[in-house]
Give the backbone structure.
Amino acid sequence: MTLLLLPVALVFLVMGLVALARPPMVLAYFDVHTLPAPMRNEVRAVYGGFGIAIAALLLVAWVSPLWRDGITVTVAVALLGMAAGRLVSWALERALPKWPARFLLLELVMAAMLAAVVW
């Protein structure tokens, strides 16, 4: 079951690397195609640095049984928080566009994968 950590880590790593290298590409999924410097900085920090840090933590969880449960539960809860935010937005906006809906599904699947590692 610990192998389930690796695809989740890979998703976070790819997200992080893309965000660091091409910040506008990240927000293009949300119909934002040009970013001023402060927003590029924000995307690099929130999607880039954070994504790579989470990927690294999941790799630590994969090789370190002592840390595995704590890291895995923490990342799963973070993913569920992201999904919950999308659901709140869906309720308030009365719409969930194609890409946010896909990301909601991805977040739920990855949270379930991590839950399977722990339980």
Notes: Helices lie at 5-21, 23-27, 37-63, 65-93, 98-118.
